[in-house]
Amino acid sequence: METRYTHSPEDIRHYSTEQLRKEFLVEKVFEPNQVKLTYTHNDRMIFGGVMPVEGKLTIELSTELGVDYFLQRREMGVINIGGPGVIEIDGVSENMVKQDGYYIGKETKEIAFSSVSAEDPAKFYIVSVPAHHKYPNKKLSIEKIVPLCMGESNTLNQRKIYQYVHPNQCESCQLQLGYTVLEPGSSWNTMPCHTHERRMETYLYFDMEPDTRVFHFMGTPQETKHLVVGNEEACISPSWSIHSGVGTSNYTFIWGMAGENITYTDMDMVPMQDLK
After folding, report:
1. Which residues are annotated as a binding site?
2. Does residue 274 sit within a domain?
3. Which among 188, 184, 167 has a CA at the least distance from the CA of 176?
4. Which domain covers residue 159, as residue numbers?
5. Residue 224 is part of a domain; what is its CATH number?
């Protein structure tokens, strides 16, 4: 598990492109037969990919956590973005097709991931944050989630937002997790942009063609920065940063949030004339 530390807006003011990418971009999220996790000190979120091809994979303990098992003091959300898979939670197995999700509560001891076929392996994206209370585990099937339809074609931001770990689906301590799909012909996510000082966020961009790139915007509204992001790469977005992006084509991304509250609409919108 790789560790990433926190930064203030002043820290990144003079960062080179290379430095900015090193601190905020995770270029390799999925590796065959591996669990690849990143621990960010932004609200102590852990995120990453589990890609079982042959056999089962489990999340091993890291000395950074100081506990007896991974979810002893944490909760976790999972979304499968690959082929059909299976997740075993304390001895109970559940099939997970593409876009199926799962909320796994604090004090869950045994979790194993596997694929139905090595030729079309599952890709489980996970997000875990500290938790103070145990809420029930719950499968979040894509077929049972009604998406929010947002944006317009003339502003190039028509998109569907699938809310997985969210109060209208299940209870959680502080984790929110969802899936946004941009319609063909749309490329902007969240513009006008926003910040939310009360929550940090991570993004996994995927379902992109090899030559498609997303320009992920970050920084303060008065001093914006950007990362150029490829397929199945992830970004860390601190709470003080703007949250926005634009692609060379339509794309899909998973957003994971943690912080002071779980009110999805708690955003501080930034007027277009204030952006620099």
Report:
1. 194, 196, 201, 243
2. no
3. 167
4. 12-269
5. 2.60.120.10
Domain total for the chain?
1
State percent of the chain over pLDDT 70.
99
How big is the chain by its Cα radius of gyration, in Å?
A: 18
Binding site per annotation, positions for Zn(2+) = 194, 196, 201, 243
Distance CA 263, CA 276 (A): 28
DSSP, residue by residue, 221-238: TTEEEEEEE-TTEEEEE-
Tens digit of pLDDT for each residue in 205-221? 999 999 999 999 999 99
Output the CA angle 85-89-91, nearest 5 degrees. Answer: 105
Overall average pLDDT of the 64-74 stretch: 92
Q: For residue 67, what are its two tokens? A: 């506990």
On whether residue 276 sits in a domain, the answer given is: no
- Please state, in angstroms and rounded to a whole number, the distance separating the CA atoms of residues 262 and 260: 7
Torsion of the alpha carbons at 213, 29, 116 and 170, rounded to the nearest 10 = -90
pLDDT of 64 reads 78
Identify whether the C-beta of residue 113 lies closer than 8 Å to the C-beta of residue 82.
Answer: no
Looking at the whole model, is its pTM more than 0.85? yes
**Higher-confidence residue: 221 or 195?**
221
**Residue 240 counted as domain residue:** yes
Summarised one tens digit per residue, pLDDT across range 18-32 is: 999 999 999 999 999
User: Is 2 within the bounds of a domain?
Assistant: no
